[in-house]
Write the structure tokens for this entry.
Amino acid sequence: MKIAIYPGSFDPITNGHLDVINRGRHIFDKVIVAVARNPSKDPLFTPEERVELIKENVKNRPNIDVIAFDGLIVDLAVEHNAVALIRGLRAVSDFEHEFQMAQMNRHLDDSIETIFLMPNERYFFTSSNLVKQVFKFTDREKHLIPSNVHAALSIKFGHNQ
């Protein structure tokens, strides 16, 4: 079984993330979405909330698991017998950072490949941070995020649903 891990903070998950997950699940037998516990990023949602938001959107896809993790992603990959890490690329500006991370991960364990997947072009400009910034002022942004994320952001920011 070829297993891949798609790591990220997913604070919150967007339709672009879900698009990458769907692309990955057609390439690999199993995709593990790994939600990073990274308190230094000051996340809006707890790791448990992020895991649940993602699970609600992939519940009908048996080859996708969602977990939270601490530590190095290559260690998690070894623990789960993963052969690859999935990383999303939206724009050229993502490449330098992603390339550095991929090289470090290869340095740490060269048996795990990094696969770069691009989401549909309608999500190229989307990021969790941009979605949160827009939501500080309005809750009208609905086509870039799943409906459960919209509801959760509305609650966090005190918008009427």
In short: The beta strands are 3-8, 30-36, 64-69, 84-88, 113-117. The helical segments are 15-27, 47-58, 73-79, 92-108, 128-135, 147-157. The two ends are 43 Å apart (CA to CA).
